[in-house]
Write the structure tokens for this entry.
Amino acid sequence: MPYSKFSRSLVAALALTIGGLLPPSASAHARSDQGPVVDAPAGPVAGRSEGGVTSFKGIPYAAPPIGDLRWKPPREAARWDGVRDAFDFGPPCYQPSVPGAANSIYFEEIGSMSEDCLSLNVWVPENAVGAPVLVWIHGGALVSGASSFDMYDGTRLAQQGAVVVSINYRLGALGFLAHPELSEESSDSISGNYGLMDQIAALRWIEENIAAFGGNPDNVTIAGESAGALSVMWLMTAPRAHGLFDKAIMQSAYMISSPALKESRNGHPAAEEIGTWLQGELGAPDLAAMRDMEPGELVNRATRAGFLTWSTVDGVLIPHQIAETFDRGEQAKVPLIAGFNSGEIRSLRRLLPPPPSGAKAYEAKIRELYGDLADVFLALYPADNIDESMLAAPRDALYGWTAERLAIKQSALGQAAYLYLFDHGYPEADEAGLHAFHASEIPYVFGTIHDTPRNWPRIPRETAERTLSDAMMQYWVTFARDGTPVASGQVDWPAYGDNSAFLVFDETPQEGAELLGTRYDLNEAVVCRRRAAGNQPWHWNIGLASPPLPPRVEGCQ
């Protein structure tokens, strides 16, 4: 079985990352004793107003995926009778208990979990009529996270003029298990990707219901960070999601390979083979026995066994690998924002292989693994500072290459693409060696810079921090509104275009050009060779963790 001790440590590391109303028409809204009421097609809901924003939380967008509906596509929720209180977040989807998680900077109390977790939350600005809709998909390696995290509170973004929606979706083995018996049940003969199906179901709910809240169903932007940004890329490649959104924002996306459903490809075992393996690890005689398992026990045992959560290239919902779909120009033709953080790996060191004994060992290993590309690799990630080189190489290969590739490919379709680098630090983060770490841009995007998790490096209560956050919120919301990111009193954000332009978020936003340069070319060549060989994945196997690269072939550098 292709699951090693490394897979178990990797899944543990990833699980620590990371997640007054005026009516448009007189008949659409009312007020109960509890608060404003919206009579949406799904059913009437009562919300709460504060600071010029009304929130509606824990609204079900699909039927509970429990019992026989475990590992089934989401079903439409029945319209409810009477006014539903939408004051509290719905329960998070089941996720594993990870030893040491409470010490992580990303740790947040998750609360009681449930399989009945397919809910969403809506924040509506005062006087909203036809407002742009910004849909947030939380991160967490497709294993953990929830829309209820304080850092994702949509109030301040809504105050900028957008209707903000955040969603829960099935995670881990409950959300992404493929299995031959599940494929046999499916009318499409596919399985896996249930969490992605949930996201599509949420977008359909938004299309049908958001106008009642004052949002414009024809102006929807999907956004996410890390696994949320990975989800946005999958939605861009999924034909069934096309037409459900009009713009996309990807923060720290990673364009990794994924297993195919029935065949071993790109160095991955078949997704169905992984599902059969997991069934054996769980000691379940058949699918019915797996459906009968207590959900918490199932996800924890799957994690301990080394189950890695992947989306599945099933040929139907997901026709191709992300990289191939973008090469074919078959992705959603929408404007996008994509970017990454300069210190991505500083908070994800558990993804790194052990360091070598010294500079000579480092150089020798890179030459062994990278062959004719070793000189380029060593010039970019030299042996004179191994730690910094080991941090920079996966940052550029996972997040930097992905962001710039998204900008290049979308620009080639004639769509506006906006690239950024988040390079902002502050004393407590910098002193901890966490300058611009993975996800550190999120509280600036949401305006929640003082609502971060308990172990998060504290952001100073200074005007400069709030000013930067206000600028990022404005860029994000104006992009959602008009397709062009603009912030009052800040530098214009140029489209990537022919000049390879980007924006740096440091103390203040600043314009730049040629973000990655040779670093992009190197990683494009590496992935191109792996794709051509067909027997190597492309994900965290970078630098010292790389297998020997395939030789150069026609069409690859």
